[in-house]
Amino acid sequence: MTKSFLAGVTLTLLMSTSALAEERAFPATLKAHAILPANTIIAAPADAADYLKTSGKFSTADRKRAQELGSVPGKDGVRPTGLSLPFNGQPMQGFSGIKAMPDGTFWSLSDNGFGNKLNSTDAMLMLHHVKIDWDAGKVQALETVFLSDPDRKAPFPIVMEGSTSRYLTGGDFDVESIQPVADGFWVGEEFGPYVLKFDTSGKLTDVIPTLVDGKPVLSPDNPTLALQADPSKKTPAFNLKRSGGYEGLALSKDGTKLYGLLEGALWIDSESVEQAEGRPALRIVELDAASKDWTGRSWLYPLAEGGEAIGDFNMLDEKTALVIERDNGAGAVDKACADPKEPKPDCFAVGSKLKRIYKIEMTEENVGKAVRKIGYIDLLKVADPDNRKRQGGGDGYYDMPFVTIENVDRVDDTHIVVGNDNNLPFSAGRALDKADDNEFVLLDVSEFLKAE
Which residues form the signal peptide (predicted)? Predict the structure, then answer.
């Protein structure tokens, strides 16, 4: 038996072991289910400009201002969701990142508003301190912190540049992930992408541009990019797709490092993106919290077959973490349209096939390489033997067939919390004709958390 043959066998075994590790599924059991109704609207602060007292005024197809409240039907593709824009107030929707606190409460945040930079200039950016009553199945807001930039830290003119209060909106930043610390909050952002720091009152103190391998990472929404005046000249270069910035931002257990996980893969050239283990891979980059400088260290997160994006990211210990990975489908597969290119109001355009939470390992040895995927739980088939679900699922199980599931953190040694981003009023994955609520679940995943 030759050395080359042995080497080939060894390589095959290693590849098989890696693949098996990635596809290793662990059980999850629903222990509690809480719901914040989709149409939960809160008032803007008293000192906010009148422009911010209503929201969603520019969500028409032609971007023209909608003057009359509730005059623009919300739709998921061609399916009406039952809610209409503009809203009288600010929606407490789009929970996009969560952190469990020692007292049993949670911090979360609403993302940029109505899906993009142009239609979200009247959507206020806010953080939420919430208490979940698992027995009653309800979510209570203890405090809402509206984000602002009174000290002019944003390196560009904000939407409310000339106002006294200078509240931030979804036309300025797309905030997607949160890490509360003693002196405020670290927030991961998608437009730049930036890592942002706010004090405890919600005042912006730092805007940190992203560098990977010493080079800028730029999305097409980065405010430093500008079109050429001459059509014969090249357009500005960017290396990240729109909505590909920080969907996940994790904090090391000692609080000294932040780990930003991009939602989209970096483009190497106009035809290819970064890969690891034969799959498109997303960068995890390390930031020193004290100096606010990038350390130069990073890891690659390879997407699973069928995976298209990540939803949230939180550390379990110094080496392992939780990551939500998903496809872009919504709704049950058995109610999907026959032809996704011809969506109809009575079927889901593309059904949900992959909604998972992975446990990953980041070590010194795999810096610059792929993280190790230890295993996953399937959010489309969560065991519910005691029938604790309040909606969705089926006989003996609960499911989360939402296009965006963007909240996960460990609650204790055996449980995690998981929640969706309902993209109000545009996502309808639970029902064909009803806007998704904000759903939070408590899952028993003891075997998964112990897995090595």
Answer: 1-21
